[in-house]
Amino acid sequence: MKHKNPWLLSLYVVAALLPFSALGRLRVTTTTTDLAALVETIGGDRVEVFSLSRPLQDAHYLDATPGMVVRIGRSDLFVENGLDLELGWVPEVIRETRNRRVRPGGIGHVDASLGIQAIQVPDRIHRDMGDVHPSGNPHYTLDPVLAQQAARNIADGLIRVDPGHVETYEANLEAFIERSNEVVSSWQARFEPHAGARLVIYHKHFDYMLESLGLVVVDSIEPLPGLAPSPRHVAQLISQHSPDTVRMVIMEPWHDQRVGRQVADGIGVPLLILCPTVGSCEGADNIISLFETNARKILEALESSPRP
Ligand SMILES: [Zn+2]
After folding, report:
1. What is the pLDDT of residues 71-119, one digit of tens each?
2. Which among 91, 105, 114, 154 is least surrounded, fewest beta carbons within 10 Å?
3. 303 φ, ψ (degrees, to nearest 5)
4. Domain 187-304: CATH class, spelled out
5. SS3 of residue 198 by DSSP
6. 45 C-alpha vs ligand 1 centroid, how far in Å?
7. Distance 59 CA to ligand 1 centre (A)
């Protein structure tokens, strides 16, 4: 397309850069409620945020829907967790949308995991076995210090699509970093008497936050992330652990609690169900309060159960 009039051309360029929202707020779609909370924290009243998954939905296992395609089609910014958390559905949604801005490489696309060093990166053998963490552990938003990098990536995305408010986004990011560092440090100090306490988990969901609290995951009920445990694996867990070596079993509410209960009772330790996402528990309505809610539950369980 040739434009003889340079003013007309610049008008097209400006129109392409303008946010869509008629109310002047940016429309942001995220894959998870954790990311939605981060967008709200950094974007403040500049943004309208919608999460494609609900708080008690396991984002590993959503299905792509036409509604999701419509939603990201209308978005100024699309934020995904990355590290293959949404491997089963986001690529299809991205493929179907006509909104090129929110595709990877577009001005309105944010991979919130950019710059995050994943733990538990498996070898190829695990990939072939259907591991749902093929790029390492994707659940970094449970730890508010790691979530700072996601917040940085989100701020960069907001600044790209709304450069006029760069100071607002930078100030909100700085405040989040300061607050989250303070909160995590204070909880780490409270966990000092329990440093090295050993735990069994169901899925590798809370590992980043457990590590930052000085706790040690010694085994998981899923033999690999996403693989249901066999009766043999459950029996092995029960025979290999005891209250002398393990303090509790931790799990998410969306996995089979009968299996969690069987393992905890078999070992003879408490079963603790934590909040896996923002909005999944009362009071856990942002990244910091999600961390605090989970930390409080673990601390109470450690203080109320006998030490080996
Ligand atoms: Zn996972």
Report:
1. 999 999 999 999 999 999 999 999 999 999 999 999 999 999 999 999 9
2. 105
3. -75, -25
4. alpha beta
5. strand
6. 31
7. 8
